[in-house]
Each structure stands twice: as structure tokens, then as C-alpha cells.
Write a structure and sequence with these properties.
The chain is mainly beta and 69 residues long. The chain has a domain of 48 residues: N-terminal domain of TfIIb (Single Sheet), CATH 2.20.25.190. Helix content is 6%, strand content 26%. The protein has one helix and four strands; from the N terminus they run E-E-E-E-H. The protein has a four-stranded antiparallel beta sheet, with no helix packed on it. The chain is globular, with a radius of gyration of 13 Å.
Length: 69
């Protein structure tokens, strides 16, 4: 069984419980998912966004950088 690599998003605030530094990002089925470890709130990228590559994201001018470890 393969383990999913999960990373925390520094400085991010949960939309539901407003807790800071509790959001983790992970990729499952080639889609990015974000989950709050405090309240369990989950967010996923829209289906149309998963087809786009990192260099062709909308609003690319406002992106400072993309973290790829």
C-alpha cells in the first residue's frame, strides 16, 4: 500500500474553523486536496483545474512560486 505524501501549508487559515497552520495538502487521483486537521474540513481543486499544467494556471501573473519538493 502506497503512502500519500502530505504537507502542511504554512500560514494558511481554515475557511470553516479559522484555525491557522492546520491545513495539509496532498495529491490523490491526480487531484490536489486540502484538509484541516483541526475540524476535518476538506477542499479539492475543480475538475477542470486538474487538466491544466502548473505553468498554464489561470492568474499566473499573481503566482509567486510553485513548491515542488
Amino acid at each position: 500500500m502506497a503512502r500519500t505524501k502530505k504537507r502542511f501549508i504554512a500560514g494558511a487559515t481554515c475557511e470553516k474553523c479559522k484555525a491557522e497552520d492546520t491545513l495539509m495538502l496532498f495529491v490523490e487521483d491526480n487531484k490536489e486536496h486540502v484538509e484541516c486537521v483541526q475540524c476535518g474540513y476538506k477542499m479539492s481543486e475543480p475538475d477542470s483545474a486538474s487538466a491544466q499544467s502548473a505553468t498554464k494556471r489561470p492568474n499566473a501573473d499573481s503566482v509567486i512560486g510553485i513548491f515542488k519538493p
